[in-house]
Structure formats: C-alpha cells, structure tokens
C-alpha cells in the first residue's frame, strides 16, 4: 500500500466527517452560541476560566493525544494495517468523536460538572460514587503507565551505562519548556494578547526551548527522573489551570502540529510503501483480534480518557458553546490522522512484514527522522524533536489525569447537600486538594515500579471501559433531555462488549497463573486486584445505566441543565 494514497484518503474522509456528521450532531443537540457557559458564569480563576477556542483546543488536543495514537496503531499492526485503519476511521468518527463531543456538551449543560454528576442525576448517588471510584482507579493506572514512559525518555543513561544524547536533550528541552510555559501563562493572564501575538510568542519560546535543550543536555538516571516527574505533576495538579496547564498545553499543541506536519512532509518526500500485510488473521501469537485490536488502538480511535478531559477540564474553559465542536470532535479527528501517520511511518520502516526492534515511539521517531534526512535535516535534530514531542504529550496526559484523579477522589466524598463550612474533620481531610492529590500520586508511584509494559493491557481495558460508561451517561442525558441520543446506543453496546471481554480475559489469565504457580504478587497480584475491582464496578454501573436508558421511562426533572 502506498503511504501517500492512504494519507490523502484518510484526510478527505476525516474532513468530510467533521463537515457533515459533526455539524449534524451540533444542530441535533441544539448547540447555542448565545448561552452563557459555566466558564463565564462560574469563573473562579482556578478551574473555571473562560478561554479562547484555540487555547482550549491546544489543551484538549495535547491532553488526549499523549503517546497513545503512536503506541496503539503500531502495536496493533501485528494483525495487519487494514483492520487498524478501519478501526481508526470508523471508530474515531462514529464512536470516539461522538463520545468526546457528547461529554463536553453534557458537562457544559450541567455547569461544567463531570460525567459522574450526570450519572448521579439519572442513575443515583450509588452509581455516581461507583463511577468516580472507577475513574480514580483508572487515573492511578494512567499515572503509573505514563510516568514510567516519561522517565524512560528522559533517562540520561542507557542500560549499558552510556550517555544518551537524545534523551538528555529531550530532558533539558522539557525543563526549559516548563519554565517558559509558566512565563507564558503569566503573560497571557495579565496582558491578554491577541491570538496572533500569543502564537508568535509561543513559537519563539518553543524554538528557544529546543535550541537550549540540544545545546545543554541533562544526564540524570531514570529513577531520579521518576521522583522529579511526580513532583512536577503534583504541582501541575494543584496550581490554577492558567499558571501551567493551559500555557503548557498551548505550547505542546504547536509541537504536536509541527511533529505531524514534519511527518506528513516526510511522507510526501519519501513516498513510502507500507511493508506490512493488509491482514494477517484473527489470531496472531495467541492474541485475538477481538478484543485486543480495539483495546490496543485506543487514543487514535476511541478513548475513555478523552471523556474525562472533556468533562473535567475543557468544559470549564469553554467561552462559547460554538467552540465545543472544534475543541472535541475536531481534536479527535486530528488525533485519528496522527494515528494513521504513525501507522504509515511504522509500515515504511518495516522489513518483510516485520517491524524493527524498539518501542513504538522509537520506531516512529526513526521513521520520521529517515524521511526528514532526505530533506536535508540532520538525523539527531529530527530524532530529538520527535522524541521530545512524544514525551511532552505523555507528560501532558500525566498532569491532566492527575487533576482528574484528584477531582474524582474529592468528589467521592461530596454531594449536592454538602456544607463546605461544616464538614467533619475526616471529610475535610479527604476532600483537601493536597491530600487527594498526594494519595492518588502515591498509589500511582507504587504501581509505576512494575513498568508500563505490564500495566498497558489493564490500562487499555480500563480506558475503553471508561469510554463505554461515558457513552452510557451521554445516551441517558440526551434521552432524558429530549435531544435524541440514538446515535450513541450502538457505540455504547459495542464498547461494553469489547471492554467486558478484555477485562474478563485479563482475570482468566491472571487466575491461571495463580493456579499454575507462576503468579507474581507485585506484578500479577496488583493487576488481578485492579481488574476485579474495575469489572465489578463496571457491571453495576452498566446495569444501572442500561436499566435507566431502556427500561425506565420516567424523565428526571431535576436535571440541573441550564435551560
């Protein structure tokens, strides 16, 4: 398969989907630019901050992208490139983008509250608390997996003890990146510059970070970086969004766009052929296409994590309802494009149907660097920038999910009748921002010690289950508020089938190891406990959701929707 042909066809399909299906949903659901959004009505300078569409898009895109759309498609290529492409395009348009858009729409219409709050309204407090507990456990998994990835890309020394110039440069660039993001946040908050000025300043700071990083590489062991990464995400989780989260994501969006354009230009220059079979079978190496493919390709097609970002952070920054479509539906489709690009790059450097050795990000960076070398760009520079981009988005996902985990933990112990001024001491402690962040990160740190490769299958299954449960909540919200919602029913049922199967397989696998004596307490034990908790919570929530959606005709009146 020719890479340029696949790229052009994918771009045409995604643009057509945005113009037709995306705008159809906005009209069907009644998006109204004249309504006051929660960011405007409840502005507090910390979480509720009305922000321009471009900046919120940058936050959304950088947060949801992470390393997922690069890792997933390349790992799933063991089944062939065709099923991966079909899932990215079909799943991304009709499930992923719908979930992201529906999540922010339901949240904005309910004062910027989370999907958990939507579940409380229509299913009850028990359903809400179970969902929040599920989200909190999932957040711990994300923190564990991505912190290990980030620390690994920053590690200044390889397994042989030698220095890694690329990793050292990436680490230094990221340090400069964070410092400049802080300054950019203050500048944008106080000066409120135009979009043009903001863009120019951001580009200058981004280029300066890269130049400084390549000139002054930092060589620190991985374990030390692990501590530093957790210290950073603690601060990012508790500081007001305009201080670090927004400006860093804004800078990241330029980096990601550059990475994507560099890869696309490289594809057109190199005119690569995808050296992978179109389809290799339904079972490869003991792994079944269903559900493995649909769990592995998450962020590039559909990811439950997106619904958390849409409803927990982005919904509190939307200045106008008209911005919701490009910020969520649009960002999801751009991420689909990134997944397609990653697959083309991996296929281009494959040999006789076999991918080269290395992690998916390393394969991707190798491919793009080989493309750009033909355009005269030094291999070290291009490899460093691509590696930086991947680690930057993994780090962005970390600070976003740490905030989501913190908010979910706090909300577990709060409800609509809670009196903030007269809470018992224990409740005050559990809902304290610093305590909630600390306990979330502490458990994430413990789990991170077993390595992201061991966590990834469980993370992927839990991630997709979040998507299934979010679609349940969106479907109920749309039906109860007379906005339709039938377009979410099939995606919801498909995702439930995928995720229950995947979690069930993990439980069977770990239980088998327990019986044959090969069970590891730290590795297998923690995964089995998490899998049992997650599937137990999911069964109850899904049952209550489907009962409310299809068998309970009574419409909830206290919707809280801002009519």
In short:
The chain contains 21 helices and 2 strands.
Write up this protein.
- By secondary structure, the protein is an all-alpha fold.
- The protein has a single domain (3-550), classed as Amino acid/polyamine transporter I.
- The chain has helices spanning 3-29, 38-41, 53-65, 68-76, 81-108, 115-122, 125-154, 165-191, 195-215, 222-238, 245-270, 289-296, 304-312, 324-349, 360-373, 379-412, 425-430, 433-448, 452-480, 489-516, 521-550; strands at 283-284, 287-288.
- A two-stranded antiparallel ribbon has the order 1-2.
- A hairpin with a 2-residue loop joins strand 1 (283-284) and strand 2 (287-288).
- Helix 4 (68-76) runs antiparallel to helix 12 (289-296), helix 7 (125-154) crosses helix 10 and helix 10 runs antiparallel to helix 18 (433-448).
- The chain starts with a helix and ends in a 13-residue tail after the last helix.
- The relative contact order is 0.18.
- Mean pLDDT is 87; it is low at 555-560.
